[in-house]
Amino acid sequence: MSLPSMLDFLRRSLERLPLLQVFLSSCLACLLCFQASPALAQWGTTDLPPLDSAAPEFTLPSNAGDGEIGLSDYRGQWLVVYFYPKNFTSGCTLEARRFQKDLPQYRKLNTQILGISADSVSSHTKFCDSEGLTFPLLSDPNGRVSAAYGSWMGDISLRNSFIIDPEGVIREEFVLVNPSSHSSEVLARLKQLQTT
């Protein structure tokens, strides 16, 4: 390859670099929004809170209730807090639909579902309306709560979930879950925990 050809190749490659960056970023987002590898767990900003410890307290804006929902609002009942990357993406939509489908079983177990992502309250409202979701979604735009639960990477929440007992203690955690089977796994573990 001649020097002018090589320089032309390098120039064209550099021009495509932003496109390559967009492509790679999109691939990473898709990976996180559908089914991420457990190896990505190390990318979370903090460690997961320990099992059998008090769940980190939070109050966040929500599309439901009086506009804000806190952990303490659910003392006396079981709680599933699930973090997810983004509304309207395929994996996140599938996961939310599964929780909604299983919601009557959760209610029989005195359990509330809360979804948390960096999306705005307005986006949560549109997502709930679009998918017929009747459980609250909470907005964590700066990732403060997601980070407290070891579930924050860059500017999105990782797909992690926690079962919290009526006293506010973390009894189970699920890391980088499969959205298609996750609700079933949570229900099975919740039943085990409630019978012990």
Model description:
The chain has 196 residues and is α/β, with parallel strands linked by helices. The protein is 41% helix and 18% strand. The protein has 5 helices and 9 strands. It has helices at residues 3-33, 90-108, 121-131, 144-148, 182-195, and strands spanning 59-61, 68-70, 78-83, 111-117, 137-139, 152-153, 156-157, 161-164, 170-174. A 5-stranded mixed β-sheet has the order 5-4-3-8-9. The chain has a two-stranded antiparallel sheet with strand order 1-2. It has a two-stranded antiparallel ribbon with strand order 6-7. Helix 2 (90-108) runs parallel beside helix 5 (182-195). The radius of gyration is 20 Å and the shape is globular. The protein starts with a helix and ends with a helix. The model is unreliable at 24-28 and 32-45 (pLDDT under 50).
The largest beta-sheet arranges its strands as: 5-4-3-8-9
**Number of extended strands:** 9
Gross morphology is globular
What is the succession of H and E elements? Answer: HEEEHEHEHEEEEH
Class computed from helices, strands and strand pairing:
alpha/beta
Unreliable spans:
24-28, 32-45
Give the C-alpha Rg. Answer: 20 Å
Estimate the helix proportion, in percent.
Answer: 40-55%
Q: What is the straight-line distance between the termini?
A: 72 Å
Counted by DSSP, the helix tally is 5
The main β sheet shows up as: 5 strands, mixed
Strand content: 15-25%
Mean pLDDT reading: 85
